[in-house]
Design a protein that fits this description.
This protein is an alpha/beta fold. It is built from 9 helices and 8 strands. A hairpin with a 2-residue loop joins strand 4 and strand 5.
Length: 221
């Protein structure tokens, strides 16, 4: 089974690009960040402290996080796709995902999914930790200002009205936390191909990614 690993910071376009790339290749798609967001959402909902790794890991196991056929994420037997994109969840997810106990629970499930089908998997440690031997590794990036504007538009589309300064501050804070955490920090794998999406539209990024995949794997054109 072929694994395409896509990593990058918040707002770099990972989710959109990975989903569209998977569709064009006929591969499955897995958004690992959504899994951590689901745990963060459940923790906030249930009053579980985000600094309590053991309790968060237990929550992750009990939630039986999975993806429906339409790509929506299911946790604790309900669709939480909208809830996990709320600003409060975005603010909490970095701390939740930094706990080794939580990462162990979700890592096992991520690897299981990646061994049963051709798949595009995106996150922050896919090419470095989850699938270090993936035959294709991409690292998407963009300037903090552009990533903040993308995230702001997403939030507005979801009914959350936030300013660009507030969103940029959150992006910069998230970058620092993710890149400096002790467990599975955000970094580009040495053999990953970097794509700067700052001046490209989605279709251009997806096509560039598809060409890279075609050069490395025997996939339909």
């Amino acid at each position: 089974m072929a694994v395409i690993a896509i990593d990058g910071p918040a707002g770099s376009g990972k989710s959109t690009v990975a989903r569209l790339l998977a569709a064009r290749l006929g591969f499955a798609y897995l958004d690992t960040g959504a899994m951590y967001r689901a745990v963060a959402y459940l923790a906030l909902r249930d009053g579980v402290a985000t600094d309590d790794g053991a309790s968060l890991a237990a929550l992750a196991r009990e939630a039986r996080i999975s993806f429906a056929a339409d790509g929506h994420i299911v946790a604790a037997e309900r669709d939480v796709s909208e809830e996990i994109r709320r600003p409060a969840v975005s603010a909490a997810v970095s701390e939740v995902s930094a706990h080794p106990e939580v990462r162990t629970v979700l890592l096992h499930e991520q690897r299981r999914i990646g061994t049963v089908q051709d798949i595009v998997i995106e996150g922050r440690d896919i090419g470095t930790v989850v699938f270090p031997d993936a035959p294709v590794k991409l690292f998407l990036t963009a300037s903090a200002e552009i990533r903040a504007e993308r995230r702001r538009r997403e939030l507005i589309a979801g009914g959350e009205h936030v300013g660009i300064d507030e969103t940029l501050q959150a992006i910069v804070k998230r970058d620092a936390y993710d890149s400096q955490r002790a467990v599975a920090p955000l970094r580009r794998a040495t053999d990953a191909i970097e794509l700067d999406t700052s001046g490209l539209d989605v279709d251009q990024v997806v096509e560039a990614a598809r060409q890279i995949v075609r050069a490395k794997l025997d996939v339909p054109s």
